[in-house]
Hints:
The complex is a heterodimer of chains A (about 110) and B (about 350). Chain A has helices at about 20-35, 45-55, 60-70, 75-110. By secondary structure, chain A is an all-alpha fold. The model of chain A has no long low-confidence stretch (mean pLDDT about 95). Chain B has a single domain, classed as TIM Barrel. By secondary structure, chain B is an alpha/beta fold.
Amino acid sequence: MKNEYYNSEDLKKFTNITDWNKELGDKFFNYYESVFAEGKLSSREKSLIALAVSHVVQCPYCIDAYTKDGLEKGVEKEEMMEAVHVGAAIKSGAVLVHGVQMMNRYNKLSM
Amino acid sequence: MNKSRTMNVSKQLDILNNGIFSNGKLPLFKEKLKEVNIPDIKKVQLKILQLNIGYMCNQTCSHCHVDAGPNRKEMMSLKVLNRCLSLMIENKIETVDITGGAPEMHPNFKWFVKRIREKTKVDEIIVRSNLTIILANKKFFDLPNFFADNRIHIISSLPFYNREKTDNQRGKGVFDKSILALKELNKVGYGKANSNLKLDLVYNPSGAFLPPDQESLETKFKEKLYNDFKIEFNNLFTITNLPISRFLDYLIASDNYEEYMETLVSRFNPNATKELMCKNTISISWEGYIYDCDFNQMLDLKINSKNNTVFNCKIEGLVDKKIEISQHCYGCTAGAGSSCQGTIA
Ligand code: SF4
Ligand code: SF4
């Protein structure tokens, strides 16, 4: 069966979302463009943040897009992997910090 | 073996003219120009004479658009070299840009350079040196002094400021040798802030993606090369890989061709068409044929004239002639644009 999920060709059709709601679609893409423009953070720094977040939200489209974007911004592969680890550390930290909740609950219910 | 390993020219043109460019997926370059109301690209007053004096090279880089290597025997004859000198005398040429292969391997290289200095009013002589040639053999050890004595402007490829990326693209050991060669050039005064001996470096992406911003990459290269090796240079040019020759082979073998062409087309920048290098340059092959640029030379797309050799072409008559374009031209117009002297938009 043809795989209908996460087809890399679909990334090129991203802007088609404006077909069914132009106003909101346009607002989103304008906002997106402004976010990634050079600001207090360089566009290179933003690209690395986006790469880390792409992994945390596990979006294959974003991972493809921001790996290529990183290459086009001269980001080295070691920097990319460090960024992914930052994302992973925050995500696993977020899991583990809930362990305190578990401990609190456990302790409350136990004699 | 003296033959190229890359697919032949007609096969390359077939790929560039058909497939995604004939099934409606992507517009032809000429259609794209029309879409944004850019008239035909035409020659203006000639400034730069680029000479490819032979395909022999001590390296075999994976992106090489010339498909050069140690076994290539094609070499500009004395007859063509002399005719090129006459062109420099007869016409107002500001810059002569000597490339190859490794041009220094041509047996008449030094004679030719000295002749240009003695006999012509050409102001700038560029030599595209691959750096490692300086250390390749004893007979080349004096090249830095020769370059300096003849006020050569050196432009050299260094794909990255680290060993891994450079060696992947240009061959094992190339990074270390390039660093040694750069030190030799610095020693005779090249690339120093207060010197008039210019040493520029060229970055081209080590894969199927566009180059980073030229200015910020230059800053990074300068910082890294100075901090790690005390090397100085003048400018960094970022150059886009054009989908021809060995790089086209790579794009196809790695299944990146379609995506790469889509990237080039989607990043088409109309502003880059104003400063295309083919407008004020002609590129001359080892056989003496004339092309609009070095890339067209590799695709054997000769200038738009019946008189297309150094022996019968009237250079002043080229002004306003239409430039031969094809889909590889998208490489010159993507993003910040690309030329042999870096970005153009
Ligand atoms: S040094 Fe230049 S001419 Fe030689 S193989 Fe590499 S890219 Fe080609
Ligand atoms: S490849 Fe570039 S320089 Fe050559 S003809 Fe096309 S646009 Fe001009």
